[in-house]
Design brief:
Chain lengths: 293, 267
């Protein structure tokens, strides 16, 4: 039994990287617009479907399908911002959050219309490589690819936010909207960019999970439920926290599910979340408000 | 001197109901420091926000009049456009990005797109005006002292080479010695960088000291204007804003009745 610990740890870590993608997607939107995006599950499923369609309908190779899906993500992100969020600019926050719920229902309907309610699966063996075994730990090629792609995505994001002027402006907007405007930052552009980035991350997660399992409008969006504890766990306003939260949720779920009870695995993350919230309400890495006395 | 920014009879209401400005006209000429004085709620900040177009973000509308900058109408544009054309507003209350370091804060104010070398050059200019800032450049802004934050905030406005700087109460909550220092720097920026400045202040004494021209606002209207030296000499200004009676001694509140009688011209 104990010899299985590293195995469950590693596969949890690899799966967790996909949760982390979703969690970071939520946090990006929250940080810059203060909106909690309840449509993230549907957006990621939509991304997965785009990737699937490019592979199955247009016979693209997988990498090209992923590029195509990411381009669609850019379009989707821009449309969502322009049609749903911008008209509501300046409205009460609750209204906007409800609008994201409405968006999720709408997207689910669209997916049902286009791809029906049945499961669809990618053709198998599109990814090169086979299961890697290190010691007693086996890592499937799919999970390794997923992990690799997630790492690349995070590294790119980190570079963008730390090194580029646009990244700096986006971080500035996340701290103070009015001040950012007075500094000459075009915040509508920043909001649009935020949504594009968020949908891109969702699309990556949706494609990777869709490839590994299958896609269906009924359960693919539920993946987001794994990201919610991750986000709150790490602190709603911390990208690093969301990343770590995603990994931790993946690991806990896999370890508890594998070693104790599979049904326990599903709820374990929430139990831990409850504990974290009791001790640190701002999350593990949430920003404390700076107040000068 | 030619007029660079002119506000013509603007009227502003919030939520389309509450009228705050009732026909305000202000003129800033090139290279001038113009002071806008008045008590709380007179509409000074609203006037600045009307110019910088930040009003929209708080449900304020310009319902009448117009604002022109270098001959072009700007009262219907967006805040980022206003900043790009060369009007930067320094918001009231030393607003910093609290989680950024000083240097990140300054960089956030940079509007150009000419790349790293240009940013560095601009940073150096700001550092030469505020020698205290380079020592602090890796410190997180939320933890700086009030005076340091105020310098940083003015520096951030300078980094984009504005033609007009709108300063909203730079003296707020600062010790008298720091106020003197800040005003000295404002004067220097005006002299060396040729930046025109529209300065909103409650500290009339300090503001009139450096200003070329001044307006006095009350209840959303301009009630008095003139060259700063003239206003400094004006009996009413002396009494209501500088706290001096005609002989130059401090006014006693015993004579509050007298105050009420004299204040009639304001309402």
């Amino acid at each position: 039994m104990l010899s299985l610990v590293p195995q469950f740890f590693v596969s949890g870590l690899l799966t967790g990287s996909v949760y982390a993608l979703i969690a970071v997607s939520i946090v990006l939107v929250y940080k810059s617009t203060r909106i909690f995006n309840f449509a993230v599950g549907e957006l990621l499923a939509l991304g997965g479907y785009f990737c699937y369609s490019f592979v199955v309908w247009f016979h693209f190779p997988l990498w090209l399908a992923l590029v195509g899906a990411l381009l669609m993500a850019v379009v989707t992100g821009l449309l969502v911002e322009r049609l749903v969020l911008r008209p509501l600019l300046g409205q009460p926050l609750l209204t906007i959050i409800m609008a994201t719920l409405a968006l999720s229902v709408l997207l689910r309907g669209i997916m049902l219309m286009i791809w029906t309610g049945y499961d669809v699966a990618f053709p198998k063996n599109l990814l090169p490589g086979k299961t890697v075994v290190v010691g007693s730990v086996a890592m499937s090629a799919e999970l390794l690819w997923a992990f690799g792609i997630a790492v690349v995505a995070f590294a790119t994001l980190a570079y963008f936010f730390v090194k580029t002027q646009t990244g700096l402006r986006m971080r500035a907007v996340s701290q103070d909207h009015e001040l950012a405007m007075s500094c000459g930052i075009n915040i509508t552009v920043v909001f649009a960019l935020t949504w594009v980035l968020a949908v891109i991350l969702g699309t990556l997660a949706g494609s990777l999970m869709g490839y590994r399992l299958a896609l269906a409008p009924s359960y693919t969006p539920l993946l987001a439920l794994k990201a919610f504890p991750a986000v709150i766990f790490g602190g709603l306003d911390s990208v690093t926290g969301a990343l770590l939260g995603g990994l931790i949720v993946g690991i806990i779920e896999s370890m508890v599910g594998g070693l104790i009870d599979p049904t326990m695995g599903e709820i374990s993350a929430y139990i831990l979340l409850l504990a974290v919230l009791l001790i640190r309400p701002e999350g593990l890495m949430g920003l404390k408000r700076i107040e000068r006395v | 001197m030619i007029s660079i920014l002119s506000v013509n009879q603007i009227e502003v209401s919030y939520h389309k109901v509450i009228q705050v400005l009732k026909g305000v006209s202000i003129e800033v000429r090139e290279g001038q420091i113009v002071a806008l004085l008045g008590a709380n709620g007179a509409g000074k900040t609203t006037t600045l926000k009307a110019i910088s177009c930040l009003l929209r973000a708080e449900a304020g509308d310009i319902t009448g009049g117009d604002i022109t900058f270098m001959g072009k109408r700007i009262d219907r544009s967006m805040p980022h456009y206003i900043a790009k054309t060369g009007i930067i507003q320094v918001l009231e209350g030393r607003r910093v990005f609290p989680h950024f370091t000083v240097e990140e804060n300054l960089r956030a104010g940079y509007l150009g797109s000419s790349g790293e070398s240009d940013i560095r050059e601009k940073l150096e200019t700001v550092y030469s005006i505020f020698p205290r800032l380079p020592e602090l450049k890796h410190r997180v802004c939320g933890f700086l002292s009030g005076g340091e934050q105020q310098m940083m905030v003015i520096g951030r406005a300078l980094i984009s080479n504005p033609k007009v700087m709108l300063l909203d109460e730079p003296s707020l909550g600062l010790a008298p010695i720091l106020i003197a220092k800040i005003f000295e720097i404002i004067k220097r920026i005006n002299d060396e960088q040729k930046t025109s400045i529209l300065l909103v202040e409650q500290n009339a004494l300090a503001a009139l000291e450096i200003a070329d021209y001044a307006y006095v606002m009350e209840n959303g209207r301009i009630v008095m204007d003139g060259p700063a030296e003239k206003l400094q000499e004006n009996e009413d200004i002396k009494e209501f804003y500088l706290g001096l009676s005609s002989v130059g001694s401090r006014k006693s509140y015993k004579e509050v009745k007298h105050y009420k009688r004299r204040k009639r011209w304001l309402s």
